[in-house]
Amino acid sequence: MFGLNKRDAGLLLVVAGLALFAPFLLNPFPTDSAMAQFNAGYPDLMQRFVIFGVFAVGFNLLFGLTGYLSFGHAAFLGIGSYSAVWMFKLLGYNILPGMILSVVVSAVFALMIGYISLRRSGIYFSILTLAFAQMLFAIAYSDLIGRFFGTPITNGETGLQVYTSDPQFFHSENLPDIPHIFGQKMQSTYTLDVGAWSFDFNFGYYFCALILIAAFYLAIRIFRSPFGLMLRAVKSNQQRMNYTGLNTRPYTLAVFVISGMYAGLAGGLMASMDPLAGAERMQWTASGEVVLMTILGGAGTLIGPILGAGFIKYFENIFAKINDNVLHSWFSFMPDGLENLMVALVHPFVGKGWHLTLGLLFMLVVIFLPGGLVEGGQRIAQRLRGKKAAEKATDTSKTPAE
Amino acid sequence: MSFSNPTRRGLIKTGAVASAGLALPTYLRADGHSGFTNAPTGSTVTLGFNVPQTGPYAEEGLDELRAQELAVQHLNGEGDGGMMNTFSSKALKGNGILGKKVEFVTGDTQTKSDAARASAKAMIEKDGAVMINGGSSSGVAVAVQGLCQEAGVIFMAGLTHSNDTTGKDKKANGFRHFFNGYMSAAALAPVLKNAYGSDRKAYHLTADYTWGWTQQESIAAATEAMGWETVNNVLTPLASTDFSSYIAPVLNSGADVLVLNHYGGNMVNSLTNAVQFGLLDKEVNGKKFEIVVPLYSELMAAGAGANVQGVIGSMNWNWQLQDEGSKAFVKSFGEKYGRPPSNSAHTCYVQTLLYADAVERAGTFNPCGVVEALEDFEFDGLGNGPVLYRGDDHQCFKDVLVMKGKENPTNEYDTLEIVEVTPRAQVEYAPDHPMFAGGELGSCNPGA
After folding, report:
1. Does residue B381 surpass a pLDDT of 50?
2. ipTM reported for the complex, 2 dp
3. CATH topology of domain B44-179+320-398
4. What CA–CA distances, in Å, run from B245 to B205, B234, B248, B300?
5. Contact criterion met (CB < 8 Å) for A165 and B208
6. Which of A97, A302, B215, B361 could cysteine-pair with B181, CB 3.0–4.6 Å?
């Protein structure tokens, strides 16, 4: 079914299940309990999980398959966002035109950047993409195009927003003043209260989740296609392919553009959930983040990037919000001196120190699980299956893990 | 085992769930019957404190957080009550807000619009915050203010000095206690004229975002009106940490005054660079070279050390003020943290009290009630003398302080001295002033 083999169909179902039941899975703790701090099932974060999932899946098509490490992918994310917000400003808050334009514009930029950058490989390719991305960031951050034309195009550091004075050609009185799709508001949320638990079902989230599932399905098809095989061949030995008379450039350029379109789609989704486009999402740190997500989850695996994206976004949003007050309430059962000591010990790792925790975990993963979280999962599965299955699994792990 | 069966079933299931998800009617998170976003139902109410804890304005953000914690303590009746005792409105009783104990959540804006909106959204969606307070950058303030307007919660801006916050980007759900670029310029111009004369050539270095642009525009307009000439204006990226390449051209430009439209870490670095280049020892056009920092803060002054000596700037409030409100605030802040509060701390503390007071007077947490209670509200005893919260643009009008770096500081906090307290009448402007035109306040949004 869907042209997938059994294993891939299973994987697609797992992703679909995770995405559709996320409001339950991410809110395991009762709302009023002390552990509610670790609940992640609120609309904004769930949207971020799947949007960055789309971004990372697209990045993995390039990096995981061809081994070309692009260090400027956030540029396409930003371009997608700006395109979408411009559609909101000009046409109205229906997100469809914005989504389409964001994919088209990022594809155009990816074609231009890819055409030049792909003349080199390895570290030179990375540096070229980084340089292009930083150039685009600087242009957006100082709104150089806007200054040239005398009207804001990216609106610099403040970020591009929609004002009531914008033309919004198709906007009418009975349509909401926030992003919607044919009148259905992205931010509308239905809250289900079950006993002490509370689950949020957000329309925008489910819209993003469906797109993630579609994007993931497309990624599987690309992985399994002859085109995908060609890309893997590029990764294992590009020189040999060139010697046999094959021109690999069209393949790598095609996947670079596809990957850029994924990023543009993610950017368009981000703007659709929150109609503001800031230049920061194009900065090199954002490009680095998607590299981290992919490596943390498992580069070259299908589901890894999604796991990595979820992992990093969870840390950024949940750990960063634990302040000293929360720590004191956790350790309040201890005597005063001990309580203060514990708070002082934990303090550097939470709140603004979440980067430190993430960095430590990243180091642990890279050292002990070079294949990322997916390898961790595989090892656990092996332990459970017993020794015989383990031997079999080691054989397969020499081929790229999926 | 044939896999098509499970898949088909899975597909049907998936489709059913998806269509159920899509068919869900429109509800906002807040209960429909309460009429507004995050209506507090239990015995507590949650406020969201969104401040920069990392990035160029981190120092300011951490000081804001201290003040906000203090404000929550005072609202809940702990500590000595601080400015609640001197506040002209007596609606607050020290039993929380409307009898509900005040709790708070914190977030890191990172001085980035995206991150700030994400953390504010988390506070609104996850923690159920009814009010967002804090922030130390106008770019962030404008972004978060827009978000609060959409979500239907009140935004009590922290330190934001751009004209746009209550100008072209003003929103009905947003309120600003802090002063702005126009007021700084109006207060500074006469002092600069007295100190440096009316025949000067100014070179501007400006942080490249909404605050820098509007402050530069304001200062240039005010100084040009008294006879100064603006030689050049160079925009510098907010993320810069080294300004030496921007300082060098100043020497050859023929300018004799350098105006640094920088704040926080930016200002510390650019001022330090300027002093290292020996600008203050130069004589240009037969006059001593001077540096002006239109927006000052004691945290910046402490960061720049001896470099601020003699440099003139303006402030919203300073801990050395001797009115009852300021003394009470400095006392309780000092007792808790062992240091005097900065003016960003002051504005966040005051904004939190003002919000709580407005809720008490309105008798509801409904944003529309709060907006009505705050609009055209006149108050006193919060450290700035008599203050008006103007209803037309949700901007506070009060006296402005002109400050100068102290020549012989006695301790690490005694870095600035008050040169003049510019009366409120001198810094007032019409709501439709060209520097503030272009935006619409809109109407209050209660969310649900």
Report:
1. yes
2. 0.82
3. Rossmann fold (3.40.50)
4. 11, 11, 6, 21
5. no
6. B215
